[in-house]
Amino acid sequence: MTREPGGTRPLPALDADSRPFWESCHRRAMAVQQCASCRRFRFPPRGLCPYCHLGESRWVPVTGHGRVYASLVVSQPPATAWKDAVPFNLSLVELDEGVRMWTNVTGCAPDDVRIDDRVRIAYDAVTAEVTLPRFTRAADGDDRDAAS
Ligand SMILES: [Zn+2]
Prior knowledge:
- About 5% of the residues lie in helices and about 35% in strands.
- It is mainly β.
- A 6-stranded mixed sheet has the order 6-5-4-8-9-7. Strands 2-1-3 form a 3-stranded antiparallel sheet, covered by helices on one side.
- Zinc ion binds near residues 49 and 52.
């Protein structure tokens, strides 16, 4: 397991299944794995489709826009590595493409995040190799892909 430089927080492990996802985040152009057979998205990335159990897949760029599906404030550090980070926001963001991912909504107070808030991706390069997809709330008129 790799860790943030100068810190102790764990970083995602890049394996054969997840490497394309993390590389797309590092290029600041997030792509999500899609089953080549049934066309459903697979997240997190994995070798076999959980719906049709076939292995073929492709990587589809996503808009980086979505909404807050669930949100909470972490007040107690889950491990000592986060003792200086609390309180922080932990949200389940649903991309406009339908994929849900646990992430952080940043740029506002942790408890200012509300269900259904429109958000957009804010890439956070934490190391030379790893860029984490975090999100910020979309400003009014700054969310091209919002449903009208
Ligand atoms: Zn499938």
